[in-house]
Amino acid sequence: MSTTIFAATMANDNKKFQAIISHCKEYGYIFPSSEIYDGLSAVYDYGEWGSELKKNIKDYWWKSMTQMHENIVGIDAAIFMHPTTWKASGHVDNFSDPMIDNKDSKKRYRVDHLIENFAEELEEKGESDRAKKLLEEMDRLLAASDYEGLKQLIEQNKIKCSVSGTAHWTDIRQFNLMFSTQLGSVTEEANEIYLRPETAQGIFVNFLNVQKTSRLKIPFGIAQVGKAFRNEIVARQFIFRMREFEQMEMQYFIRPGTQKEWYAFWKAERMKWHQSLGIGPEKFRFHDHVKLAHYADAACDIEYEFPIGFKEVEGIHSRTDFDLRNHQQYSKKKMQYFDSEINQNYIPYVIETSIGLDRTVLMVLSEAYREEDLSTADKQDSRVVLAIPPRLAPIKLAILPLVKKDGLPEIARQIMDQCKPWFRCFYEEKDTIGKRYRRMDAIGTPFCVTVDQQSKEDGTVTIRYRDSMQQDRIEISRIKEIVEKQIF
Ligand code: GAP
């Protein structure tokens, strides 16, 4: 039997991306939000298996950040924050993207996305040198906030709107990405507040509370997982860019002047974490920021090679004392730390690691999705498998009685009762065993055990491994141990 993975040889990777999106919908991973009303642009719901995968990734990150680092603790701050928070953080004045509108279609584009898409088209046409030069020029102009120059670049390259097909562009303008709402019941008295565009500020404003209660000494970190909201103008590419999404962020508070070494430390540490998901180093790269965010003195992204190309999954930012200093100024509360080792008071510097949970879900799914040709000389066959690392897989073990009679379901139920307190199990007795295996492959279940007549005689079952499809005979009493070895 030949097992060919044809995902790798698919002619068009965008096809693979579309196949993943369909697969997610068909197998309970991810649905468009409010689909019965035709969906809501760039908002998605996680289904029964998607929410399990997302939770497993979240737990894995949380454990590796907090439990595995004695000097990092977690918090869970509210989404709503005092409006001055966003003035102090710079988001009210600076959290905007340069946008351009096409005068004919009225479609609005983020300038960098418009140019990047055009560069991708050039690449596809074999004009790599031109694409490279274009992107270098774009980076230079963005870093200088030279919007006139960017508009000229768009015009010189005759970049067209994909809807109207014309190149009639407005001037470039800045649009703030924060959503706002009203706090208070009477409209006239209500205060305008924002839905947080990053979780980090919940950590900054709690810096002194946590430092005092945890009694941690610098360097120490505060971690958080939570929702963030951005009114993304170009929101597409499935869960890669959403208007409501989740971040897993950690702020590491350090002594001023040590930021270079801690920045290098967290770059290496986070890259190791990504590779611990079982993804090869060749699928990642660092991308240093040319145009730094308003709060950073150094910043880079960890990019993963999605089917749609290398894209950012995580940002690592050296945020200086920008946030704490501004909160001190706006709140008039001291944000200083007394460092007893050097007998000095100072506002700590911060290194931030900020990873998108949804993008990590997409990364794990992109890496796991395979279409395999299992054809033999006499029979055409294939399967779709999600080779998700066992520790992240939504279901760890499927328990399948071969037939629905002869006492086999009873044995299967006993196995279910033994294992379900320890990890997520799934019981299934409908359909042929072959169909049930295929369904579990498509959901990404790493282990299936089949209970058959022999199980009644000698207390053994067949265990089938998802990735190799190998089958072994094992004792029922060993199932829990075998699965647990792979998932922790
Ligand atoms: N606190 C720093 C910060 O928010 P960022 O680079 O803007 O930095 C961090 O965002 C991460 O959040 C990104 O690397 C990405 O994974 C995720 N993210 C940002 N915007 C997103 C969006 N619209 N949809 C999904 N994930 C997003």
Can you describe what's shown?
By secondary structure, the protein is α+β, with helices and mostly antiparallel strands. The protein is built from 16 helices and 24 strands. It has three domains: 4-81 and 178-367, Bira Bifunctional Protein, Domain 2 (BirA Bifunctional Protein, domain 2); 96-176, Herpes Virus-1 (2-Layer Sandwich); 395-487, Rossmann fold (3-Layer(aba) Sandwich). The strands form seven sheets. It has a seven-stranded mixed sheet with strand order 4-10-11-17-14-13-12, with helices on both faces. Strands 21-20-22-23-24 form a five-stranded mixed sheet, with helices on both faces. Strand 8 (180-183) and strand 9 (191-194) form a beta hairpin. Helix 2 (48-67) packs across helix 12, helix 5 runs antiparallel to helix 6 (128-143) and helix 6 packs antiparallel against helix 7 (147-156). The protein is globular. Residues 1-12 have low confidence and may be disordered.
Question: Would you spell out the secondary-structure blueprint of this structure?
Answer:
Blueprint: E1 4-5, H1 13-26, E2 30-32, E3 44-46, H2 48-67, E4 72-74, H3 84-88, H4 91-94, E5 96-101, E6 108-110, H5 111-124, H6 128-143, H7 147-156, E7 173-176, E8 180-183, E9 191-194, H8 200-204, H9 207-214, E10 220-229, E11 244-254, H10 259-275, E12 284-288, E13 298-306, E14 309-320, H11 322-331, E15 337-339, E16 344-346, E17 349-356, H12 357-368, E18 369-373, E19 382-386, E20 397-401, H13 408-419, E21 425-427, H14 433-443, E22 447-451, H15 453-458, E23 460-465, E24 471-475, H16 479-487
Helix pairs in contact: 2-12, 5-6, 6-7
